[in-house]
Amino acid sequence: MIEALAPCQRCHAAVEQGDLRCAICGTQVPAQAQVVADAIEILRCDGCGAAVKYEVSERAPKCGFCAHVMHVEKVEDPMEQTAWWGRFRVPKQEADAALTQWFGGLGFLRPSDLRSTATIEGLKPLWWVAWVFDATAFVSWAADSNAGSRRSAWAPHSGQCELVFERIVVPATRGLSRKETNHLATSLYLDDGQDTAPADSEGVVEQFDVQRSESRAQIVDGATAIARSRVEQNYIPGSSFRNVQVELVLRGLHTRRCAFPAYVLAYRYRNKVYRAVINGQDASCVTGQAPYSVWKILGLCVLAGAVIAVVVALISAS
Length: 318
Hints:
Layout: E1 40-45, E2 51-53, E3 70-75, E4 84-86, H1 92-104, H2 114-117, E5 119-145, E6 155-171, H3 178-184, E7 193-194, E8 204-205, H4 212-234, E9 241-269, E10 272-279, E11 286-288, H5 294-317
Parallel strand pairs: 4-9, 5-8
Antiparallel strand pairs: 1-2, 1-3, 4-7, 5-6, 5-9, 9-10, 10-11
C-alpha cells in the first residue's frame, strides 16, 4: 500500500515517504526520502471536525458525517496522505435493509414501533481514514496479583515479553466516534481495495488531517493499549490483578494510511433524527444511535419496586 524506502541506517526500521526521522530511533532520514508538501485546502466541518477534499464546485457543503456546514481551511504543514482505499462490497439497497434488521435486534428496551415507524432521511457513502500498522515490540510490564500473595491480598509481579502486531487498525477519523470505529473495525476486508482514490461521484472521502509526529504518537498509544490487553490476558499470574503498568519499545513499525468504506444513515423517529453507520464491506456490521422506550423503562422500574416490596414483606413476616 505504501512504498517503503531504504531502511534506517542505524536500527534498520522501515522508512516511509514523508518521514523526517526514523519512527523508532529518531535518526535523521536522508534528504531524498523527505517530501516537502505544498499547502493544501480542505473542507473542515464546523460540527464534528472531519476534513474532506476541497472542491471548488462545492459551496457551503454539508458534512457527510454529521450534516453540519463545512468551511474552507488552508493547511500549511505536511499532512498524512491516504494511499489505499477499500472497496464497497455492500450496495445501497442492502444497506437500507441492514438498518431495518438492526432495529429488530436492539433489544426489549427500544420502542416496539421503531422498525415500522422510523424513516430514513439520508444515506451517504463515504470513506473514513485509519492507520493499519505492523510492528514488533519489546514489552516490560508490572502489576499486583493475588498469585503468591500469602498473607497479603496482593503480591507484586513483573516480566518482559516480545509481541508481534499484524494489521492493527488505529482510527484517524474525526467524523466517526471511537465507539463506532471500534465496531466497524471488527469486520474489515484489508485485502480488498485499490491504490487510487475513488471517483468523486462515489461518495465523500475523508482526509488525514494530522501531522506525521502526531500520527506516530497515536499509533504508539494504540499499540500500548493492545499490549496491555495481551499482558492482562496471557502474562499476569493469578485470577485477579491491579495497578497494571506497561511500557513498550517498538523494534519495527510499518504503517499504511487507509480509507475504509461505510454508509452513514440519518433516520427520523418521532421528530428526532438519529445516526447509524453501516460497514461498507459487511452489512451485518451496524452501529449507531437509537431511542429508548420511556414507558418500558418505567414499567421495569415499577416491576422491580414491586418485587422488592414483596421480598421485604416476606422477610418481615418470617
